[in-house]
């Protein structure tokens, strides 16, 4: 609302009304949040909003209580300063609900383990418990807080809530014994009556609410939209979570029911003395409280008084009249309830309070300013505390802000506002002139033995002491105070009596005689000590608590929520213009807007500003070595902030617009994001390298001491996807949309006649795919070659894998129906990944057997049953396998490989260009990597020129020995100077390609080549098998093993 064109109360009210009617209940005045009670559940308090506002700048999203809470939480973490939020507004404006949303948001955005979660549970569960015992229906609010609560959530340095503390004050004890028309007693009574089990009701003597005097005075028992029975279960669950033992829970309910039964004891006048009207009504409250019925009767109708005569003191028993007996009964009921409430607060504190405090966020929820038809001592105390809170708001937003501009030498036009300190002094001053509370305490002290006439004496003394004060007026039955929220007339009757707040020693003795330890613990006073000095009065206690609260709040960085009640009907969309305008006036929203508009949105000490934004420039990070003011200027100029957007004070920098601050914050976030990505990248690279080496080690273990190794492949890097599936939609069509690819390669599959057929072997977390190609026999695509899913194997159906003990590339996949004989250069990698996936799915080890005689079952065809085939492996010359089929037996002859105990040799130096090693997934662009520098799971259309790769590569990483004549030729070329080259042959006109990997032809119609060899590309084919010409031979080769040049 700082941007309103007119700054008047009418314009503010109109703006609030428009937003309210459109279901926007939150508005900002600078950092102050204005909240209008919608009297219905709003849809924007879900996890989606939590995610939206977490970490976002305050003005990045629409106004919301989550934005203010997130701002508090982040400021606490960044600046290391305690935060607090002061929620103010009149009764029914929505303060308690706002406090719940704050605690709920903090619980969701802060992390933590089981211990932290336990603290969060207690913090959240404390709400229903304290509301049950501390809230009630009033004329203006169906769930009105009848006590003040300051809840501190304590945090570890990591931002996890690990403790808390509740300070309570101003419990409205008088509500226990009497309520105004259309109001209720505290919620717990109605919850107990509606929600207790049949057994509990019988044990506690629970009847209908109209049976109890303490509940039937107002004639109101139900509240629209409130389920007392369900709320009772929540209250009991809350006690359980907080850790109140079961036996104590039972006694809490006993005291609650005992107070109700105590209220039904009535008195009659008998010869100027009061006596119990019905003796029978003494038994049940005495039973519930664990005391003797006759003793209860005695203490309600008489009390001891100390009498001094001639230097001697003696105790005499004074019989009370009917009115005094009723007062004594009510005093006992109020004392029991107040002490029970204090116990519950203390139980919550014991469950979550930690010995030392690091950081905290405080939430102040206190009942708002009250103006009723009849305003008594309770309203006087409530309004005094609200007056003190208004003073804090003025001190820290209006007064302090303007004074700071003057101290810092900032150009500024002063703005007038009403400072309510004069009203606070009227109430709490001790001397010259004495305030209302001081006069009240003095009257109570001098007339302690004379109950009658004390209130009249108080009014006379107030007229004498403060009668001429501009904010005070008196009338025949009371006085008027001109509060910041308006004039309030207070009825003087009962002021002195309620201010004394003294419980007779007789009643303390009575409760200390209870058979229940818990009840005795609520009355710990030592009555044998000498009574010296004035007893503590209610007003002096409230004044002390209010000033302690103010001191606590002033030590924190404050935030403000100003709650507005739009109507008295408590219905959605009702808007009472005059009521809202009155609240806008006394909350000082117009002055607040003017100060924010003319002032600066942000101010910070030079050193704190430098500390926060030093990361933006290399000159200031990690430490600025010059004067702090110059460092701040350097930062502001580095982000090109206009000179009119900031002013430099003597110790602080002042930034005018929030947008300028957001610019700084956004740049800071970007810096952190960049550095975080660098750290993440390094960490992922490290983890990937570690995982990769572990995977190769595990793969090596599968064959260790069982199979000879090929010298060409033992040190090969694992690539995973050798087919480049990301760019092969014709193959990906057989996989689900986001199915991850662990392994993909073109293999040889042997049929029942041992004829070799090309198949694409794909391994995913879902199974094994074997894809072949067939010519379409009919239709519009007749004659075209199409990919066909030949077989899909589920892991649960795989019985095992068989291999020979020699260096060949054959293996048999055994499956329930029939087996598959396959040949792959990358069998070790495939087996390693298959073993892992198999174990993940079946929770058992894959059976891998080694033998030089492999038997496998072939697929049934026609009427003939499936039969077996045998592959026999023999020693022979050379490293290439020689195949000789004969009937149902295939003989494979191959030379000796490396010993079975051979292991791969790992290079610890990471490749220069390798950024991470992962298996391919459908989210990444994949390419087959070069043999020198693998990048697992990566397939890109463009790659760097070959000579650049060669320069940056660490070829030792491969550790593959040179082979054949080409290897000898390379050695000679390095060791001796070559002769002059012959005349170059004319370059062929057709396209050429360069090998990215070594490929050894598997059939007579295939060609072989080494890494970086250049040869002619004769023809490309969509199947992935291209035709090339090298060293005079033309044949097939896999297209993804080369790059075109």
Automatic annotation (TrEMBL):
> Region Actin-binding: what ranges?
546-568
Q: Which UniProt keywords apply?
A: Actin-binding, ANK repeat, ATP-binding, Calmodulin-binding, Motor protein, Myosin, Nucleotide-binding, Phosphoprotein, SH3 domain
> Polar residues: which segments have biased composition?
912-923
Residues binding ATP, per UniProt: 89-96
Domain SH3 intervals: 988-1045
Spell out the Pro residues composition-biased ranges: 977-989
| Spans annotated as Disordered | 892-992
A Gene Ontology biological process in which this protein takes part is: actin filament organization
Question: Domain named Myosin motor: which ranges?
Answer: 1-669
According to the lineage, what is the superkingdom? Answer: Eukaryota
TH1 domain location: 707-896
Which is one Gene Ontology cellular component term of this protein?
A: plasma membrane
State the SUPFAM superfamilies in the record: P-loop containing nucleoside triphosphate hydrolases, SH3-domain
A single Gene Ontology MF term assigned here is:
ATP binding
| Function of the protein | Induces bone resorption, acting probably through a signaling cascade which results in the secretion of factor(s) enhancing osteoclast formation and activity.
- What family is this protein classified in? Belongs to the TRAFAC class myosin-kinesin ATPase superfamily. Myosin family.
Annotated protein name in UniProt: Osteoclast-stimulating factor 1
What is the organism field in this record? Kryptolebias marmoratus
**Taxonomic lineage of the native organism:** Eukaryota, Metazoa, Chordata, Craniata, Vertebrata
């Amino acid at each position: 609302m700082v941007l309103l064109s007119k700054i008047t109360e009418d314009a503010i009210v109109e703006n609030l009304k428009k937003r309210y009617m459109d279901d926007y209940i939150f508005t900002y005045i600078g950092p102050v949040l204005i909240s209008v009670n919608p009297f219905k559940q709003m849809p924007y308090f879900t996890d989606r909003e939590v995610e939206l506002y977490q970490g976002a700048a305050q003005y990045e999203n629409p106004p919301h209580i989550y934005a203010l809470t997130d701002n508090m939480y982040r400021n606490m973490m960044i600046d290391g300063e305690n935060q607090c939020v002061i929620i103010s507004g009149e009764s029914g404006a929505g303060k308690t609900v706002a406090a719940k949303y704050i605690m709920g948001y903090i619980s969701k955005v802060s992390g933590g383990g089981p211990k932290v979660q336990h603290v969060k549970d207690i913090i959240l569960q404390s709400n229903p418990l304290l509301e049950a015992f501390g809230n009630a229906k009033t004329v203006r609010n169906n769930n009105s807080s009848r006590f003040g609560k300051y809840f501190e959530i304590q945090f570890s340095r990591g931002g996890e809530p690990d403790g808390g503390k509740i300070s309570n004050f101003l419990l409205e004890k008088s509500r226990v014994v009497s309520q105004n028309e259309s109001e209720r007693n505290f919620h717990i009574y109605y919850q107990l009556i509606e929600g207790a089990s049949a057994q509990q009701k019988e044990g506690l003597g629970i009847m209908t609410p109209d049976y109890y005097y303490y509940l039937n005075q107002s004639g109101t028992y139900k509240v629209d939209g409130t389920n007392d029975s369900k709320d009772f279960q929540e209250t009991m669950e809350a006690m359980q979570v907080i850790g109140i033992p079961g036996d104590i829970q039972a006694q809490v309910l006993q005291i609650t029911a005992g107070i109700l039964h105590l209220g039904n004891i009535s008195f009659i006048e008998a010869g100027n003395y009061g006596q119990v009207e019905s003796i029978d009504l003494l038994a049940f409250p005495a039973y519930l409280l664990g005391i003797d019925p006759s003793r209860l009767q005695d203490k309600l109708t008489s009390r001891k008084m100390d009498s001094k005569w001639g230097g001697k003191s003696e105790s005499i028993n004074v019989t009370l009249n009917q009115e005094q007996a009723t007062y004594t009964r009510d005093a006992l009921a109020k004392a029991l309830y107040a002490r029970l409430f204090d116990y519950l607060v203390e139980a919550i504190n014991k469950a979550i309070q930690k010995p030392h405090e690091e950081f905290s966020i405080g939430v102040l929820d206190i009942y708002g300013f009250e103006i009723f038809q009849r305003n008594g001592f309770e309203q006087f105390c409530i309004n005094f505390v609200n007056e003190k809170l208004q003073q804090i708001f003025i001190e820290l937003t209006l007064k302090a802000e303007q004074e700071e501009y003057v101290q810092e030498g900032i150009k500024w036009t002063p703005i007038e506002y009403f400072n309510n300190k004069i009203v606070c002094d009227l109430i709490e001053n001790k001397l010259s002139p004495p305030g209302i509370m001081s006069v009240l305490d003095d009257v109570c002290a001098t007339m302690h033995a004379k109950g009658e006439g004390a209130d009249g004496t108080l009014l006379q003394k107030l007229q004498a002491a403060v009668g001429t004060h501009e904010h005070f007026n008196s009338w025949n039955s009371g006085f008027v105070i001109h509060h910041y929220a308006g004039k309030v007339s207070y009825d003087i009757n009962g002021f002195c009596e309620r201010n004394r707040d003294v419980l007779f020693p007789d009643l303390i003795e009575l409760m200390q005689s209870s058979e229940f330890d818990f009840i005795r613990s609520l009355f710990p006073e030592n009555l044998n000590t000498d009574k010296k000095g004035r007893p503590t009065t209610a007003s002096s206690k409230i004044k002390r608590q209010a000033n302690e609260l103010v001191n606590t709040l002033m030590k924190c960085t404050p935030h403000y929520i100003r709650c507005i009640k739009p109507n008295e009907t408590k219905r959605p969309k009702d808007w009472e213009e005059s009521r809202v305008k009155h609240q806008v006036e006394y909350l000082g929203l117009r002055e607040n807007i003017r100060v924010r508009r003319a002032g600066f949105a942000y101010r910070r000490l030079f050193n704190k500003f430098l500390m926060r934004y030093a990361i933006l420039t290399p000159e200031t990070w990690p430490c600025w070595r010059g004067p702090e003011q110059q460092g701040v200027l350097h930062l502001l100029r580095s982000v090109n902030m206009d000179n009119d957007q900031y002013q430099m004070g003597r110790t602080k920098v002042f930034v005018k617009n929030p947008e300028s601050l957001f610019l700084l914050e956004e740049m800071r976030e970007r810096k952190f994001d960049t550095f975080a990505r660098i750290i993440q990248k390094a960490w992922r690279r490290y983890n990937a390298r570690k995982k990769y080496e572990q995977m190769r080690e595990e793969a090596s273990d599968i064959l260790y001491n069982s199979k000879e190794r090929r010298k060409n492949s033992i040190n090969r890097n694992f690539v995973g996807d050798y087919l480049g599936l990301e760019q092969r939609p014709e193959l990906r069509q057989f996989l689900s949309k986001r199915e991850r690819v662990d392994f993909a390669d073109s293999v040889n599959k042997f049929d029942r006649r041992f004829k070799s057929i090309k198949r694409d072997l794909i391994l995913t977390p879902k199974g094994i795919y074997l894809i072949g190609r067939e010519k379409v026999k009919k239709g519009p695509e007749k004659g075209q070659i199409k990919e066909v899913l030949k077989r899909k194997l589920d892991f649960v159906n795989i019985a095992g894998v068989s291999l020979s003990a020699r260096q060949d590339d054959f293996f048999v996949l055994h499956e329930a129906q029939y087996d598959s004989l396959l040949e792959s250069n990358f069998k070790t990698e495939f087996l390693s990944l298959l073993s892992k996936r198999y174990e993940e799915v079946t929770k058992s080890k894959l059976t891998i057997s080694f033998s030089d005689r492999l038997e496998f079952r072939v697929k049934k065809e026609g009427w003939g049953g499936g039969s077996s085939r045998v592959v026999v492996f023999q020693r022979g010359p050379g490293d290439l396998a020689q195949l000789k089929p004969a009937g149902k037996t295939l003989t494979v002859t191959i030379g000796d490989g490396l010993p079975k105990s051979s292991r791969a040799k790992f290079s610890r130096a990471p490749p220069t260009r390798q950024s991470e090693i992962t298996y391919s997934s459908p989210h990444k662009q994949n390419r087959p990597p070069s043999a020198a520098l693998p990048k697992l799971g990566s397939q890109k259309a463009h790659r760097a020129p070959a000579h650049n790769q060669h320069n940056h590569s660490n070829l030792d990483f491969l550790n593959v020995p040179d082979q054949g004549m080409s290897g000898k030729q390379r050695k000679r070329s390095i060791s001796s100077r070559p002769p002059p080259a012959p005349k170059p042959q004319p370059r062929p006109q057709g396209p050429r390609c360069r090998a990215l990997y070594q490929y050894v032809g598997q059939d007579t119609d295939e060609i072989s080549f080494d890494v970086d060899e250049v040869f002619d590309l004769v023809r490309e084919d969509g199947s992935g098998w291209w035709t090339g010409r090298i060293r005079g031979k033309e044949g097939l080769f896999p297209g993804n093993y080369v790059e075109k040049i």
